[in-house]
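To the team - magnesium ion complex, inputs and output below.
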Amino acid sequence: MTDATPQPVSSAARTLFTELTGAEPVGLWSAPGRVNLIGEHTDYNDGFVLPFAIEQRTHVALGTRPDGRIRVISTVDPVPVEIPLADLDLLFPDDRTDVPEWATYPLGVAWALLRTTGARAASVTGVDLAIASSVPIGAGLSSSAAIEGAVAMALNETWNLGLDRVALARVGRTAENEAVGAPTGIMDQMASMLGRADAAIFLDCRSLDTDIVDLGFAAAGLELVVIDSGVAHSHATGGYAERRAACERGAVIMAVTALRDLSVADLPRAAELMDDVTFRRVRHVVTENQRVLDTVQTLRERGPHAIGDLLLASHASMRDDFEISVPELDTAVEAAMAAGAVGARMTGGGFGGAAIALVAHDKVKTVKDAAATAFAASGFAPPTVFTVVPSSGARNDP
Ligand code: ADP
Ligand code: MG
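Output:
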């Protein structure tokens, strides 16, 4: 078992910038990753989610340049990518493979910002962006929204575009959907833009209305443990698209705009109208929406100790109805519960990534050890286990 404690990486972004340009950046921006407490695969069904931003952040150091070009570099790849801003329209969406995949995130945000605001490439300054992150990639903590949020904040301010946080979240999603080509919802970007310390964001993915829900983990003596299975997932391929298609099919069969428009009371009728697989996909989404609403109410009325059963029910629904868990994540949840967690579930899109467990402070070490032992006993590679703290959203850093 290894521990991944948050490292301050703003200095890494600054150093990378200076190595690239020989100059100091004009500004530093950052945006966090997120953990989704509950509400999985509900976002693209117009439903409810309850994510919170975490301390791990992606940092962007930005400098301007007079030649109308954009150059990006990241600690994940030593080779910078450079292109005239005016040529972003040639790259996206059709010729994205002309640049390495990671570069489609920052370049895609620049492209989406210009398109959204109608600003001409010639009317904004060229930029250099150096990116460093403490958000683990592909662990279900949304390193993608973190890089999108940090770049969107940096360019919005540098280019004086005046977009608010919700608009910047939309820009991030546009970049991810159309420039990167990953068909994801808007939850991650909203969490990264709107996060607050010690609180979650209750988001209605249809209206984009948000409400801050106090979590009070620390006051209740609880910690949120992430058990990263290390199993890679990919949103752009396979199972994710199939699940989306099943949800759309279910909505068509039930003659509703989105599965959000169904309630638990509609499920018996759904069972009669659709095949078993489609029904179980629908049942996951419908019950998961209700669990999000129940979790918000429970947090407000009874506090975080009372949400354990909802987390467990969410995991069972993803495992049995939506079928997006993997043996590593089931093992993580079972090990955490056996070691005394209040509740646990896989989090993120599924097919790998991480599980979360809500754990009393004095049981955190027991849960960490139990996860490592259970993974070893099953012959899985060691998980990475660490705690996350609900934290603030994207910002301009000093
Ligand atoms: P997740 O969001 O769960 O971490 P995704 O597959 O959605 O996983 O996004 C991960 C991808 O985002 C990476 O493969 C990479 O292309 C890009 N990315 C994330 N963080 C960075 C970074 N710091 N530098 C460059 N690219 C990044
Ligand atoms: Mg992502």
